[in-house]
Amino acid sequence: MWRIVFYVNVWTVSLFLAAVAAVAVGLGAWRRTSQRRQRRGARVLWMVSLVAALAATVIPDRPIGSGVPYVAMIPGEGLWGSASDSMFADERHMILVLQVANAAMFVPLGLFACAAARRPSVLTIVVGCFALSVTIEAVQFVMNAGRVVDVDDVLFNTVGGLVGCVLARVAWAVTRRGVESDVRRHAGPGHPLRVWLLDQLKD
Q1: Measured distance CA(166)–CA(120) in Å, rounded
Q2: pTM of the complete model
Q3: Average pLDDT value for the chain
Q4: What span, in angstroms and rounded, lies between the C-alpha atoms of 150 and 152?
Q5: Residue 52 to residue 45: CA distance in whole angstroms
Q6: How many other CB atoms are there within 10 angstroms of residue 106's CB atom?
Q7: Average of pLDDT values for 154-170?
Q8: 148: left (phi > 0), else alpha (psi -120 to 50), else beta?
Q9: Across the chain, which distance is largest between two alpha carbons, in Å?
Q10: Which of 49, 66, 124, 178 could serve as 108's disulfide partner, Cβ 3.0–4.6 Å?
Q11: Alpha carbon distance 166, 99 (integer Å)
Q12: Dihedral of CA 153/157/160/166: which sign?
């Protein structure tokens, strides 16, 4: 996971968010035409994202049991707490970049989970992301293979999942508004097509 910090900067984060936003809009447009197929596609994308997240967080950096067990339980300790006072600026920057990567890693999980659900609940998905992150940290602790168990990882993972849900909701609102505008423009007030389409958009 630490190798990712070499590729995280303003440009890569911006490109990542733009790509995720584009995917969210695409899923929103697909959802308007075929909800069942869109949910299936979102489930596949969620599984791919989950495998990628597990590969980045669970695969050990060194032999299992060879690390020094350490658990960071104070939120923000490495970013702005007392532990950061003895760090160089580059070290603090690396920790911040790593947490940005932790958040970004869970953005697709939140987005695709929201897209895969028949009636998505943001609270349920965010709690699920939190539970997944806690499970990952627990596995890292048990494996004791060179990874630090950090409560900040859980917090940033959860925030990333929430961002994914928000992107999905915003994308669906935008695509829904666009379809509603087209329907209103091409069909009169009492046109059966308008009535049917607007009824489909209420879900």
Answers
A1: 12
A2: 0.80
A3: 81
A4: 5
A5: 11
A6: 26
A7: 94
A8: beta
A9: 72
A10: 49
A11: 19
A12: negative
User: Beta strand 71-72 with 149-150: parallel, antiparallel or unpaired?
Assistant: parallel
What tens digit of pLDDT does each residue of 47-96 get?
999 999 999 898 887 888 877 777 888 777 767 655 555 666 667 777 78
Q: What is the DSSP string of 120-149?
A: --HHHHHHHHHHHHHHHHHHHHHHTSSPPE
* 3-class DSSP assignment, residue 71: strand
Q: Position 101: which residue type?
A: A
Please report the sign of the dihedral spanned by the C-alpha atoms of residue 157, residue 15, residue 18, residue 53: negative
* Contact call for residues 161 and 109 (beta carbons, < 8 A): yes
* HSE value, Cβ hemisphere, 13 Å, CA-based, for 5: 12
Enumerate the H helices of the chain as residue ranges: 10-33, 35-57, 89-116, 122-143, 151-186, 192-200
Helix (H, G, I), strand (E, B) or coil at 72: strand
- The tokens describing 45, both together, are 């994308």
Q: Over the range 17-37, which residues count as b (16 or more CB within 10 Å of their CB) and which as e?
A: eeebeebbbebbbbbbeeeee
Residue 191 one-letter amino acid = H
Phi, psi angles (nearest 5°) of residue 175:
-70, -35
